[in-house]
Design a protein that fits this description.
277 residues; 5-stranded mixed β-sheet
Length: 277
């Protein structure tokens, strides 16, 4: 599939996060995200305006068992529902802002694009056991999608993939993450303002759901060993952190050696998770 839908530049009602006349009772974090999206759209050049004004990721599927064929549409629908109907509201609920209009528009602009991988070339149903070569192969599949979507970016000096996080990072769903998404409840919690205790009690509904986040440019840079600029570029991503990860990348536009913070959970396990900055 390819994304045909585009959206206009965010209005001041959505993005003027520092002006009281526009931000009253609204989630200023979401408004700040729209401000970054607006800046990103202004930098767009020669991309064919692909998916302009939206946010979201390309999703690579790496598991094709009979079970996964059943779970895949359920998992993707659950993921979309929770991001658009609940996770984009988390900060608004935490800051007790009653006006949900900005968050609702943020949810409306979230688009995932699904991409199948060639099992004869890439067979990694469990990324917990994947090698760096496996991740490089997935990155090559992502690069093929990117070329099909916007053309040959390497030969286009005017095109900067950092103008959209969609062109830099991608998600992978393997067997473990697929099952975690499929078990998300079909109903998201109420969006009414509630106490901190009641809001935190809802964490159990989604805290075990995750996908894999891959920083394509870091994977290409990785030389083996070490952290910092030499980090390997892939990690688990809790579903509630999907908006944070996307807009963190957008905020870092122009920083080619930017790295996401990662936390080892549980300690000593070697399993690295995205940590919001």
């Amino acid at each position: 599939m390819s994304i045909k839908e585009t959206f206009p530049k965010p209005s001041r009602e959505l993005s003027a996060h520092t002006l009281p006349m526009f931000n009253r009772d609204k989630d200023t974090q979401a408004m700040w995200w729209f401000s970054m999206m607006n800046d990103s759209m202004c930098r767009y050049k020669n991309s064919g305006r692909y998916a302009e004004g939206s946010w979201g990721y390309t999703v690579l599927r790496t598991t094709y068992s009979d079970e996964s064929n059943t779970l895949w549409p359920i998992a993707l629908e659950n993921l979309r529902r929770w991001v658009t109907q609940y996770f984009v509201h988390l900060n608004r609920l935490a800051t007790n802002k009653s006006d949900s209009s900005v968050n609702e528009e943020l949810g409306r602009r979230f688009i995932l694009e699904e991409v199948d991988v060639d099992l004869e070339k890439i067979n990694v149903p469990d990324l917990d056991n994947a090698s760096q070569d496996d991740i490089k192969a997935l990155t090559n599949a992502f690069d093929s999608w990117l070329c099909n979507a916007v053309g040959d970016v390497d030969s286009n000096a005017e095109f900067n993939i950092q103008d959209s996080a969609r062109f830099c990072d991608f998600l992978v769903i393997d067997e473990g993450s697929l099952r975690s998404l499929a078990t998300l409840p079909k109903e998201t919690p109420s969006l009414e303002l509630v106490s901190r205790e009641e809001r935190r009690a809802r964490d159990v509904l989604y805290c075990h759901s995750y996908v894999w986040l891959v920083d394509s440019q870091a994977v290409k840079r990785f030389q083996g060993g070490g952290d910092g600029d030499n980090y390997d570029g892939w990690m688990k991503l809790c579903t509630k952190d999907i908006p944070d990860a996307w807009f963190e990348r957008t905020r870092a536009s122009g920083k080619w050696l930017y790295t996401f913070e990662r936390t080892e959970i549980p300690h000593g396990s070697g399993k690295l998770w995205y940590s919001p900055s």
